[in-house]
Design goal:
Layout (H helix, E strand, L loop, with lengths): L20 H19 L11 H13 L2 H33 L1 H14 L8 H8 L3 H26 L2 H9 L4 H39 L4 H10 L3 H29 L4
Helix pairs in contact: 2-10, 3-4, 3-6, 3-8, 3-9, 5-6, 6-8, 7-8, 8-9, 8-10, 9-10
Length: 262
């Protein structure tokens, strides 16, 4: 009889191995190719400035204070808008996930209003709140509200019902079932919804600033594009990317702090 060969272990699951250097290498290669194409003349500076030109524009904007002014103006709109929309969305979404009556009443309304582009409501919000900051904050809050609501009640639905029934069979009151079983089980889905809503807030603040603002990253990008200052336009895009990465990093810290039990 032939010797038995050991069977390799195949139960690793879909667990991605960390590749810490690979993203930086890919990013560096793309930047190098972009710079080489610009130096060789394949990319005209007017239509696609080189990375070096974009960096010089960022440095100049930092030194004259323009960068700080525009980023600060955008953050002053994003932060309150996101907080208001998230708080309201969580309240409504959790109510829909816990109470049958709230779900029956809320799902048709959310389903009907969610597909509407929120930036299309900005003129109406300007009529209600004026041309100043409240209308922009309201636009962001409205855009954040719906994805937060949907992520909250679908996260509640994803909690295994066997865990809830087990808590009820041990005589836990409804408040403890919600606080100790439902909310911890729904928290990963809720935090994932935070990432989506933060991206929505960033998109809406740029659109709102392009329509009716003198300060902010959206207004800066629109002005630079109108003047054909493409190096400053791309510098504004880099600012948006950096702001998005900063928000994602902050939400990642929050997720790690709240999901230590995983």
């Amino acid at each position: 009889m032939s010797e038995r060969q050991p069977v390799p272990f195949r139960g690793g699951g879909f667990n991605p191995a960390p590749r810490r250097l690979l993203p930086w290498i890919v990013f560096a290669v793309l930047i190098a190719l972009w710079q080489a194409a610009s130096d060789s003349g394949l990319l005209p500076p007017l239509f696609m400035p080189s990375p070096l030109a974009v960096v010089k524009a960022l440095v100049a904007l930092w030194h004259d204070g323009t960068l700080v002014d525009h980023v600060t103006a955008s953050l002053e709109r994003i932060v309150p808008g996101w907080l208001i929309g998230t708080a309201a969305g969580l309240a409504v979404g959790l109510a829909m996930g816990i109470f049958s009556a709230a779900r029956a009443a809320g799902i048709p309304i959310v389903s009907a209003l969610f597909p509407i582009p929120k930036i299309a409501l900005l003129p109406l919000l300007i009529l209600w709140f004026g041309i100043g900051e409240p209308s922009k904050i309201a636009t962001i809050a409205l855009g954040v509200f719906f994805p937060t609501t949907i992520s909250a009640y679908t996260a509640c639905d994803s909690v295994p019902r066997n865990l809830i029934r087990m808590g009820q069979s041990f005589g836990l009151p409804a408040r403890d079932v919600v606080a100790k079983i439902l909310l911890p089980g729904a928290m990963p889905g809720i935090l994932a919804g935070f990432r989506i809503s933060a991206s929505v807030a960033l998109l809406l603040v740029v659109a709102a600033e392009m329509i009716g603002a003198q300060q902010g990253i959206g207004a800066f990008v629109l002005t630079a594009g109108s003047l054909m200052q493409t190096d400053q336009l791309l510098a504004g895009v880099v600012m948006l990317s950096a702001l998005g990465l900063l928000i994602a990093w902050g939400l990642g810290m929050l997720e790690r702090a709240m999901l230590k039990w995983r």
